[in-house]
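Newbie here. two chains, one complex. Structure please?
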Amino acid sequence: MSDIKKLKLLDSNIKKFDGILSLLSFDQETLMPKEALDERAEYISLIALKHHELFSSDELYDLLISLKSRDNYKKLSLLNKAYVNNFFEEVEKKRKIPSSFVEEFSKLQGKSFGVWEKAKLEDDYDSFKPYLEKLVDYSKRKAAFINPDIDPYDVLLQEFEKGLSVEKLDEVFIPLKEELVSLLSKVKKSSLYGKEKFLPSVDLNAQKEISLKIASLILGDKKNWVLSESEHPFSTTISPNDIRITTKYSDDPFFSLTSTAHEAGHGLYEMNLGKNLRGTFLHQAAGLGVHESQSRFWENHVVKSKSFWSNFYDDYAKICNLDLSKEDFYLSLNRVQPSFIRIKADELTYGLHVIIRYELERDLINGKLSVENLKDAWNKKYEEYLGVKVEKDSDGILQDVHWSHAYFGYFPTYLIGSIYSALIYDTLCSKNDNIDKEISNLDFSFIRTWLKHNIHSHGSTLGPEELIKYACGEGLTYKNYVEYLNKKYKELYDL
Amino acid sequence: MSDIKKLKLLDSNIKKFDGILSLLSFDQETLMPKEALDERAEYISLIALKHHELFSSDELYDLLISLKSRDNYKKLSLLNKAYVNNFFEEVEKKRKIPSSFVEEFSKLQGKSFGVWEKAKLEDDYDSFKPYLEKLVDYSKRKAAFINPDIDPYDVLLQEFEKGLSVEKLDEVFIPLKEELVSLLSKVKKSSLYGKEKFLPSVDLNAQKEISLKIASLILGDKKNWVLSESEHPFSTTISPNDIRITTKYSDDPFFSLTSTAHEAGHGLYEMNLGKNLRGTFLHQAAGLGVHESQSRFWENHVVKSKSFWSNFYDDYAKICNLDLSKEDFYLSLNRVQPSFIRIKADELTYGLHVIIRYELERDLINGKLSVENLKDAWNKKYEEYLGVKVEKDSDGILQDVHWSHAYFGYFPTYLIGSIYSALIYDTLCSKNDNIDKEISNLDFSFIRTWLKHNIHSHGSTLGPEELIKYACGEGLTYKNYVEYLNKKYKELYDL
């Protein structure tokens, strides 16, 4: 067997363990009785260990080294070259971090998550602070293992989105922040602001019917996906023909509506990853930012758009038994309301929530801000950017789970997603004059085909920004996003 | 670490792989998109391989050998002695069968299943015949590997229920057959026979509500179980606190009703396996016959009993919107109707379906009947015992999946289950004069507690018949079962 075949055989088993881990987690969040939590954690550990044994095996490393030797490398196809390089990069990075450190860090993360959960519940930041300090310290040490020659926060950013750096983000997020603050201030002065009608509660079965409709519109009728229910919506891939998305039906009918569109956007990306990449390391998204661009695209540019509701609203109002004009509904769906909670934020203020976290963790990891001063800095920024005064740490510094897992560098990808989605929407419009009309007609064939060929099918053969440049002709720029928001809210709030 | 601790550590990982395999299959049957079948089969193979590697490892075998050495063995507790002996027996048995044979046989089974599926669909027994011949041959060879000194069918029987033999079964099944045939003939002469009212179709949501109620009555409110939907009802254990049962809601409302009770009976057994046995080889049912006694008990002695409906019927009729008297409903639920299909058979004729299969496979494996003559023998017995003339092989010899998997020796456990369930019911009545009254009141506390302490909690520390003798004072006897049926049908059909 050739080395590349041996590599693919090993890799396909890694991918199988990935899929099994996804199923164990999906089932845990959607169906598993809560009492089975401990046993489930043990199952996950066992499979994670099997996955780790393969990923860190000398057999895999030696194969990759052999394939990268000049004589072997030059015989590889272009695709296999990308495959070997990407895979090697990741394997080598993992091997730089000592196992004992990984184990200690993992225990710290587990413990910290528990402490954070309790601290949030009891609104007690002080109990979490010492853990946060340790998490920051371990994250810096991890970054130093991977690359001691660049700023640690840059290393961490690249764990979630290759090629990202503070330099790049500052260039985009600083002017974007100004734009968002300025637009928010204009909206607040609108005579419509604060007078949006609220949507009455909608029967849960009607919500389910709508969610299934939305998911089918995005993911297609071909049944290689499943829509389930969980406390927090998510999407996951069990295998290439088995995409799972979840939502939550609640008092707020917008939540199941928009989260279904969001998760279906993620799901469509996974569903369309190139068939030629199956079973290999390249059969994954280019990065979390690009992944988020897909969910944001369907959530914001499609399902929260005026075009989408122009025809669909009559059906929707009938199914949900609504007595609200289309215009009132649309304004209500998109209403701006600065608040404390990121995951419930409107489209306009959402970016500010992310930028606050970015600025804080950037300074935290790069040593310009201490955990001691973090809470004050958080509260100050919320007042400054969003005009809201944090009263409870559970609504403030304790709000998100990410830091308890030491996911420093993750937050920026949420906003990169929105930025890229605006760029993608503009590109689509430049390729097809009828995009809005097609959205009105719930005809997504052009959009789905374009996304598949230009974004999804490439997997991780290209880096994230490289992929966006390939598809849209431009990389990380805030301009399209700001133009899109200005246009949308100008019309909505009659600015 | 002591050897027994090392053994338990290894064993707990085997149990984890068991649980993961159960989840992979459960999800496949209940939620997985059909398109993902091939990948799912690969995931299952991978985990089955990991399971096999542990089970057949020299490390495990050497540990068991060491624990069985006189000096070590005498230091073990009684429970650990049973543990080591049972485990060793199973491991040694597996080691007697060459891996190459296991692999070949497994491929043959896979292939044969596909051929059988198609043959059944196309009503084409001839295409399946050569595979059936091979399956018989491989099964005999397997039996010879395990124990060449006894009849091969006895070896196969013991794969499903320890201690079983043709001698024992003939002693019970031959007189039982006469009794069933005679009782059926009496029922057929009843003036009520063939005049039972049919239940109208019941709304699927009402069926769901009823199934959930039934499952809760049997399994309890404590949420360590899940009720799902699948094409064919089954029960499975993901982990001790995670019991899954399924049913199917269809045009026949009796099906979801009785299958839910049936599967919940299986589930309750698994739920109540002794906590002290968790993570070990003993944490499993004593055998398939005992397992089936639990499902049959709840299905026939509880949910199909007159007592059960005496109070519950009013609720049921309301939820299902029924306009049928309690008496007509009860007769309809229990009506006797000889037919071709085992899984749709009534309680009285069910045993005859099983006995036919037993007699045929016994003679097939022990060389007294050829595959060539099997079909004629099948059809003849159906006419003789049940009075029905098989017109299509898909309703006859091709009806069941078992033989395509080479599950020879499995069928008898279905009837052993009914036999044991009657013995258990009589034992319960001898311990508590109010059993029927408690069933009327839907108060299952005594029954649940008795089953837990006398049957479930023992896992496989005792052999199946040994366990039943321990709990009921008697082993495999058909008398209680016949008395129970005679009494039930005498009353029902006014004999």
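Moderator note: The longest strand of chain A covers residues 242-247. The radius of gyration of chain A is 23 Å. Thread marked as resolved.
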